[in-house]
Prior knowledge:
Distance between the termini: 37 Å
Largest sheet: 9 strands, mixed
Strand content: 25-35%
Structural class: alpha+beta
Radius of gyration: 22 Å
Shape: globular
Number of strands: 19
Bound molecules: flavin-adenine dinucleotide
Number of helices: 13
Amino acid sequence: MADVDIAIIGGGLNGASVARDAAGRGLRVALFEQNDLGSGGTAAAPHLMHGNFIDLERGNALRVRAALAERDIALRIAPHLVRPARFVLPVHSEERPPAMLRGGLFVYSLLAARSPLPRSEVLDLTIDEAGHSLKRSLGLALAYSDCTVDETRLVVLNAADAAARGAAIRTGARCVWAERSGTWRLAVVNRGRRETVTARALVNASGAWARQVAETVLHLPAVQASFVKVSQIVVRRMFDGDNVYVLQNDDRRMVYAIPYHRDFTLIGTSERSFAGDPAMASASADDIAYLCAAASRYFRVRIEGADVMHAMAGCDATGHRNGIVKRDRKSGKAPLLTMIGGATTTARRRAEIALAQLASFFELPPSRTASEPLPGGDFGWDTFGDQVDTARQRWTFLSERHAQRLIASYGTRIERILGAAKSMDDLGPRFGDDLTGVEVRYLMTEEFARFADDIVWRRSKLGLTMSRQDREALETFMATA
Length: 481
Ligand SMILES: Cc1cc2nc3c(=O)[nH]c(=O)nc-3n(C[C@H](O)[C@H](O)[C@H](O)COP(=O)(O)OP(=O)(O)OC[C@H]3O[C@@H](n4cnc5c(N)ncnc54)[C@H](O)[C@@H]3O)c2cc1C
């Protein structure tokens, strides 16, 4: 008998979503990620969990409707990570005609008619607070509801939930070779040790590495997919309030300016063709200049390269917002599923579609990923503020800011981190702003963190405010914890 039913190569959003769904349906799952969970392309995705309003321009109303439905599911199952926001799109006739945008918004609102989020409206930027940080020449804006998400935490919580349902999640585990017969036999270099695992089915969810994995690991023809490099920048907060700004750029692309981890603004995205090693993708001076110019066109504060505190880049599949989910049917041989790309918002649904392709192979009960919350997500999406207040009543030493961060990251699992603590001193050593020893230990035991970067860039974005000394102290603590 094979060691597991499904082996998954790749711990990005696609791999982790399949792992959660499959483990939840009783399959024995092993996921192998060569670095850290969410450290591939997913780390550079732009924090949006949305219907993608501008997709209507391309005539994709059905896809927008499906994404809006998935967005609302995500809000219910992960109300800590997925947060509703007012998206503000300044209207001006240099780009799309205002009447066209209003028509689009009318359709978007119809497609979101069942959503519990506030309805769309037209804003007068000369009086609405959304206009305070924008240039005076902008008169009107359309405002609609959508959501933001922390993608890397979404990956980690999918993996944690899969593990809670019996999946083996291996980070630092690179799949180097595979042989296919009635089962798959995989060689994995796991933290320097080589091990062999057998699986009844294999999922190649290695993102921009999928071609390379197909050719060099699976010894199969290269996967037909092309990739673009997507970049984003982080600057000091450019505006007050929680609005997400949707900026029409002069190349017809939309650039988003998103409130980011309390004191920052995330600006994305720029796209460029890219053919090299995905691990080497980085934001170029041109990418940074493009994003600074797009934001400076709208905001009163001008930004330039020197203002950029952090930049991310990753590779995303082009032309496949639905993603590629393909089963290779070789008679008599163990099945292979390839999953590439697709929107963040629909990753949960994509995992269902992927597993449906294995329905003739495994007996599968229905998926429950749409109704069961992710770890810590067992509270109502509109009670986020109540969760913060309750936490501050229980742990009276928490500042509002600290409690907000902990609820946004862990939801009701805050209990497992803070437990019986009575003061900050009970939380162990402090690293930088408000990261403490108990949180670090929780991340190491429950969320697969091994190194400081796993914590400060993927399980949080505290790297934006931590000093080098803080990070070194954290690395030392983790090495001995
Ligand atoms: C840069 C970027 C921008 C995006 N922008 C948007 C957007 O604007 N809107 C939207 O809705 N969606 C967007 N998406 C899509 C969305 O985020 C994807 O659904 C998600 O990123 C899926 O990524 P993945 O799991 O396929 O790939 P990845 O996150 O790249 O994961 C693949 C993993 O496989 C691992 N791996 C590779 N080879 C091996 C091996 N041999 N052994 C073990 N592990 C291996 C890699 O280390 C990597 O972590 C974007 C995605 C990217 C990458």
